[in-house]
From TrEMBL:
Protein name per the record: Dihydrouridine synthase
Domain of life: Bacteria
Originating organism: Faecalibacterium langellae
Length: 313
């Protein structure tokens, strides 16, 4: 079973991918890091700053899979060609993002509203781009029953792997991933399928593997931010030590400071990680507000030092 790390805007960027590999590397885990989405520029002029995220020199180690958020199939195919020039093989298409600003433009899971448009998009992509193209999808817009018609379209194309996050667009991240709907959809999929959604422990990963032995992969998102050693543990390795976490968080903080040219901006990015990670420290909830309010680097550093005096869960 392959374990993948989910694309998460603001979390699984290149600074994170490097820090994660340095501190929590384990042979074969993750098999791949999916990079947060990028949108192909309509004028077909690549923006250097955005492409820096995918520069091969900044992404040594485990394979990184770029992800595209697009609704123009020919433009997406052009971008896939540009990514191939950089050496990327697989490129992933995003039909999952539920954010209102994205779906209002008919992108992300907004693409699932109109199966005809989805079909035309995929036809244009596959007619104009070569090489492995994978898809990450939700089950639909309003209800899981929509997936049957969506899957009929996916099955028409040589999708290299279909990652299914069994929620619908309207749900955002509310409720639970609908594993029963996933199980019902699985037999109809003609391509390799990866499961994604609400996996937060090694036991849960193993349980899914036992329940769905035919999967090509399981993708973890928030669970690996909450416990960066999640995949290492699932493969029989050690849990995160205090030293691992200290080194990892220091590397992230310094990496973001360098990337943004400002420790203040790094503080705000670090809060995104701490939102999930704070629960690794017993009783740290009482410091959550202080962490949220920290603006200056020194304020952030003081509260993080306090958190590190707490026992780990
Ligand atoms: C902050 C955040 C940013 C995300 N950004 C992306 C993204 O760029 N592309 C994407 O396909 N999914 C994105 N997702 C969705 C995740 O990849 C994943 O599908 C979702 O979190 C469910 O998996 P999990 O329960 O393991 O976290 C994002 C999720 C979160 C919470």
């Amino acid at each position: 079973m392959n374990y993948y790390v989910a694309p998460m805007e603001g979390l699984t960027d290149r600074v994170w991918r490097q820090a994660h590999q340095k501190w929590f590397a384990f042979p074969g885990a993750p098999a791949r890091y999916y990079a947060p989405f990028i949108s192909p520029p309509e004028n077909r002029v690549l923006i250097k700053k955005k492409m820096a995220e995918l520069s091969p020199a900044a992404n040594p180690g485990a394979p990184v899979i770029p992800q595209l958020l697009a609704k123009d199939g020919e433009l997406a195919a052009w971008m896939i060609g540009e990514l191939r020039k950089l050496g990327y093989t697989e490129v992933n298409l995003n039909f999952g993002c539920p954010s209102g600003t994205v779906t209002a433009k008919g992108k992300g899971s907004g693409m699932l509203r109109d199966p005809g448009k989805l079909d035309a998009f995929l036809a244009a992509v596959f007619a104009n781009a070569d090489g492995p193209i994978s898809v990450k999808t939700r089950l639909g817009v309003e209800k899981p029953e929509e997936f049957a018609a969506i899957l009929d379209i996916y099955n028409k194309y040589p999708i290299s792997e279909l990652t299914i996050h069994p929620r619908v667009m309207r749900q955002l991240y509310r409720g639970e991933a609908d594993r029963a709907a996933f199980a019902a959809a699985l037999p109809g999929c003609t391509m390799p399928v990866c499961y994604n959604g609400d996996v937060v422990t090694a036991d849960d990963l193993h349980g899914l593997e036992a329940q769905f032995p035919g999967l090509s992969g399981i993708m973890v998102g928030r669970g690996i931010i909450a416990d960066p050693a999640l995949l290492r543990k699932a493969l029989g390795g050690a849990g995160a030590t205090r030293e691992d976490l200290r080194g990892y968080l220091d590397d992230l903080y310094h990496g973001y400071t360098e990337l943004f040219g400002s420790a203040g901006c790094a503080v705000s990015r670090m809060k995104g990680h701490w939102f999930y990670l704070i629960h690794k420290f017993e009783g740290a909830e009482k410091l959550e507000k202080q962490l949220r309010k920290a603006r200056e680097p020194w304020e952030y550093e003081v509260v993080v030092n306090q958190i590190f005096t707490l026992p780990m869960v």
